Amino acid sequence: MESSNVSRRNFIETSIGAAALAAINPTQFLAANENRTIITPKNNALDYRIAYGCWVNDMRLEPLALEDWPSERMDDETVRSVFKALDTQSHFKYNWLDTWGLLATTSWPLNLGDGVDKDRRNRVKKILTYAHERGIKVIYGMGVMSWGYEKIIESNPSLTAINRDGSLNKQAMCDHHPESFEWVKKILDFVLSEFDFDGLHLESMDQGGCFCPHCAGKSGIVEYHSRINSKTADYIRSKWPNKLINVIPINWAMDSKGHFTESDKQHIIELSKHIDGFYDQGWHGTYIRPEERSAFTKQLHCAYGTSGGRWVYPGQRWDRESFFIPHMRHQATAIKEQFTQGGRGILHYQGPVNNPGTEVNIASGGLISSDTSQNIEDVVAKVIEDLYRPQNVNAHKKLTQIFLNGEEAYFGHWGNSDAGEIYMDLLVGDSPGPAGYLTQLQYLDGTGRLAYKKALIPLLRDLQNIEKSFNDDGRIKALKRSMLITLTLLNTVMYAKGEPMNINEGMKPRLINSNHWRAINTLK
User: Fold this and answer.
1) Are 303 and 275 a contacting pair, CB within 8 Å?
2) What is the distance between the alpha carbons of residues 224 and 251, in angstroms, rounded to a whole number?
3) How do residues 257-290 score in pLDDT, each as one tens digit?
4) Domains in the chain: how many in total?
5) Which of 59, 109, 228, 442 has an alpha carbon within 20 to 30 A of 407's alpha carbon?
6) Which tens digits make up the pLDDT trace of 139-178?
7) Which of 248, 231, 49, 239 is nearest to 143 (CA)?
């Protein structure tokens, strides 16, 4: 058994769940010990509880409202935001942070060492020190032949990858050209010689790959990418034998309808002899079918992990308090199921921890991953106790239910979406919005939007009734604002589409014509 002390007002003891809160005496509740401990049975824990920051500024506490994604920014606000995220991650039992964009985003400079700004390098070192002081190991996100090679390819066009149709892919390199892998090694030498990273996250096809007759055109996508990732892992092992090496197969199953074939699996099993973790994460879920997962994980020579069902990709340009999308229950269900099927790791998507729904989802994901035997309702109750410090049992119960019911309010009215990754807006752009998670048909149609509104309004009303019952460091105010803005966006979408808006009988909105507008302006 392992234990960790909680520094704030205590969690409810592990043995006391949300369902049991009603039986707690309020006086006993308020007099609870300040230093309760959470007991975590090790044999129910995922070994690799990875907080996946994705691109580092996805965790940013302030929006980058007018910058395209992924932002190259590495400033004091980036560092402050990562520090805040690390505080949350360490408190809620994550043991790794995996993030991209610390040293480069789309283009590595040709002069690798001198080309990376000294201020940036110093900030990255501060992040590493802060993480290590809190017991968090850091994984560096790196593309293998794709992501970050644009300037390198421009300097030597012969390295350019070939698409299947014979066109050029100027975002990826061809492995058949010997110089391509030399660049991969140069980047690894720079990153791992100067910085104290604990591991590598290798991705090789997020920006596409090479389909020439020597690359994927020879034996297919999975064979080629297994081959180049094995080669990269072997190089890392030869110089830094203690570094963790994880491989993520984004885009690898594009030729097999989103799931690996038996032949694909054999290539991955061979790859697993060279690495520490294989994280089965695609944009629409896992590439190994659930019914095949147990048999597959038993054949691997490394840990198997996922991203835990579905995950929300936060809008880089959005106000951090402008959305409320908790999804603890769905992720917990997936984590628990995959643990029984042999999963031993998770890439749990993070986000700005000053968004209330994001913070509670991150906290709940960390705790359920540290002890998969727990009930998610009990876990959420613990998180609410720790973060919001309720003054009485009734407020604690109601706020716990607001978060749990907030998940169902949105996801309970979805269409037929198979999304693993949920995009709030368009990732790329020059300004905030649009609210795609409210408008795309795979998420919500008109009926779904009205049902979502009907479910959300009583949750906001409940919050207003208990908002004075917490010592919450401003979290209730942020939660209230996130729900209010969500309703505003929802009503705006419904009004613009001419959809029924009245929650009582589905009445049409009263449309204001030009004469009414003129009359209103005259009054002004």
Assistant:
1) no
2) 13
3) 899 999 999 999 999 999 999 999 887 889 999 9
4) 2
5) 59
6) 999 999 999 999 999 999 999 999 999 999 999 999 999 9
7) 248
